Amino acid sequence: MTAHIDKEIESVVIRFAGDSGDGMQLTGTQFTNSTALFGNDLATFPDFPAEIRAPLGTLAGVSGFQIHFGSTRVYTPGDQCDVLVVMNVAALKVNLNGLKKGGVIIVNTDGFDAKNLRLANVPEADNPLKNDSLSEYDVKSIDVTKITRTALAESGLGTKEIDRCKNMFVLGLIYWMYHRDMDNTIDFIKAKFKKNEAVMNANIKVLTAGWNYGETTEMFANRFVVSRAKMDPGVYRGIMGNQAAAYGLIAASVKSGLPLFYGTYPITPASDILHELSKYKNFDIKTFQAEDEIAGICSAIGASFGGSLAITGSSGPGIALKTEAIGLATMLELPLVVVNIQRAGPSTGLPTKTEQSDLLQSFYGRNGECPVVILAAQSPADCFIMAYEACRIALEHMIPVFFLSDGYIANGAEPWKFPNSADLPAISVAFAEARNKGDEPFMPYLRDEKLGRPWALPGTKGLEHRIGGLEKQNITGNISYDAVNHENMVKLRQEKVDRVANYIPAQEIDNGPAEGDVLLLGWGGTYGALKTATLQLRGMGYNVSHAHLRYLNPFPSNLGEILSKFKKVVIPELNNGQLVKIIRDKYFIDAIPYNKIQGQPFMAAEVVAKIKEILD
Amino acid sequence: MTDVAEKLSSKDFASDQEVRWCPGCGDYSILKQVQTVLPELDRPREEFVFISGIGCSSRFPYYMDTFGMHSIHGRATAVATGLKATRPELSVWIITGDGDALSIGGNHFIHLLRRNPDVNVLLFNNQIYGLTKGQYSPTSEQGKVTKSTPMGSLDYPFNPIALSLGADATFVARSMDRDPKHLQMVIKRGYQHAGTSLVEIYQNCNVFNDGAFEVFTEKSSKKLETLMLENGKPLVFGENNDKGIKLDGFKPIIVDLNDASVNDLWIHDEEDLVKATILSRFYDDPSVEGHFPRPFGVFYVNNKKATFDQLFNDQIAYAKETFGKGDLDKLIAGKETWVVN
Fold this sequence. Notes:
By secondary structure, chain A is α/β, with parallel strands linked by helices. Chain A folds into three domains: about 5-225, Pyruvate-ferredoxin Oxidoreductase, domain 3; about 235-505, Rossmann fold (3-Layer(aba) Sandwich); about 510-615, Rossmann fold (3-Layer(aba) Sandwich). In chain A, the strands form five sheets. In chain A, strands 11-10-12-13-15-14-21 form a seven-stranded mixed sheet, with helices on both faces. In chain A, β19, α17 and β20 (about 545-550) form a beta-alpha-beta unit. The mean pLDDT of chain A is about 95. Chain B has eleven helices and 14 strands. Helix content of chain B is about 30%, strand content about 20%. In chain B, α2 (about 75-85) packs parallel to α10, α3 (about 100-105) crosses α4 (about 105-115) and α5 packs antiparallel against α9. At the A-B interface, α1, β9, α9, β11 and α11 of A face β2, α2, α4, α10 and α11 of B. β9 (about 235-240) of chain A pairs antiparallel with β14 of chain B.
């Protein structure tokens, strides 16, 4: 046994990278759960190929999972990693430029054989383990495959099954390095393989072998201690974005007392919301996998007509298909939530990569004058409350609402100080009441102070009425081709959206003073990177503030005033400049765009550099 | 269902909106037959919902004093599925046309039929696009000369009955606007069927495709050109009911009843899918020598398939029974939490 010195560190970024069949996502998720339970703050970034089984060993097939955890607050998965775990040469090639100089590389040497070198297009003479190309890094070479096979020689399993346990060795070793408890993962393995004891035992054995390898070899001089983070007191859990969104929708269903109907069609990266909701039928959650995107939204419109909390979900290409039906919902003035987990476009684009490029689609992507309410979540946990808000506004205002998320926060995870359901804002829904003969005739387009119309359910006596996509006469809801009525109705539907501003929170400055040189104005999943960048810039003495929009249409009513207090407004977005167009249009300010369109989130350092460039 | 339904008349189902189909349109008759049948169903008016897509026929809901939705082109089937799944106690009707159901809405149409929710589809087939002023439709005969096909259309037509059987519909029938009693009977039977009922209705567009079904609807030719299906009865047609259809293996043969016995004829069995499939192929051009008469009535009924709405709601009930009513706070907290002091 070797004595290892414990070293206290504030935070660390680890990236697990391997072939898409190497189980890196599972390894990352397990490490995340254990780290969350330990009490660190954290943020994760799974980065995987669109192909389910991309060609083995190739650059295209590399799957990565990055986690940033610390004893201080963590807002992003980290720009560069401190530790890079690579299962093969392709994983090294793809990820090396994301590793800090001097960082640790844990290498599975078996993944650097002739075959793997060839698959990764690396000439045998350039094997990075055999030249000095990695001299600036701290390379820990381990033949993970061989050790795993030796450990499981007596297991009775075939080589293929044995090799599938490799990732557990790496996980065990990293657990040892960072003093993590393995119980959570052992419980997970026991549950996952409860029907196959041999595989269960094999995984546990290899996990333990990884731990013991760190303990007994002299390869690692240090173990690292990352203390619990000083977070707001409360009860926490770990949560991923899509899971949080699903819970937010369920919470809205429970709090409004309405059954939830989710009409959808599978699409990356939105499908996990369908998977998650489908588990909770006992909450009166009704999921419907339709024949296509259009049927998904139309079935939701039918359910909304019938009095359900109706939701459809998709990603950009699917939203494009739903466009006409969103227009219908706007004319029908029925509540509807449209979930868009954005990905890089146009067309099929980069299905597993993140982007914020559907904002203009949400604002303007329909025929005719068709305004809808638009909300966006800013972090994985924030998906919960923003999905909930989307439902609240849809139901209380009788209006379609977009809930925007993106691949980055949808698949990312963070600790969540979750709310008590009793503390969630109330959602009040009142259906129109039955009428008898002799009562005043029912007016389906009569309006309340929010400009909402009555929700009159089929089956209610005396409320028989017809709605449809043709222009309506206000109040009566009858078809109207009257010229002036049409103009009034177009303005009325706009006013209805605008009035939502009276029912949402005022915009706050997340960080920094209420006036100054630069305001970083962001929206959606870039929150963590912008927050981190702002903290760093302020630390360097720059007069920078950060505000992050979660309510995009309508904007909070104080936004114009906030913007007017800064000399410069910089709008960083993962698109070619979308929010910036709307801000310029609405507030007549010379906002400065800062754009990244690489299917990857912002790095805080990039943002810092950009702001310095603007200010210096 | 609410308490005892008040006695309703066909007038109670007419809305106050002016009916705006072209004078002479077959849609008027269909509207009238539906308004005639509904009061006989002994059901409160507020439980009826008519959902349509786009096209001439799809204006139908506006003229019914029931709940209604005039949705978007081809998607009434999807809207109705969502409504019926969540409100199975309602009587949901889909009003569609040949373009709406079989062209732009073809995908939803076949998926509706395979899922089998308990809804009623009235497919107004006029073999033309009326609302867009006379282009050929997916049921127009090949060679149709229209504004968009001045040299004749190239597409082969869909056979809606065969398509529906192919999509595993559980109730498939055909009727026509010009035979009110028959249409009422078929609509009523469709309503009574537990599952999706598909009723194709030959409907004359007197402006853009006048006389498309004349040979089946005119007194002079109707008896010879149509085959009125009745369950358990032999397939007989002809001016004096003097012709019949016999099966030689799977091959149908027209026989003269002056030479052959009625006892040898094919007896219509609504529950026989194979025979219904053969009948659905009686789709010949009536001008071709030796053609078969066109069948009307109920081709096929399958009462054994559970409805989608039933299965959908059974799962919810089962989940509640098995796992208990959901506890939101437990769900939000998940299995593993930690406390920060």
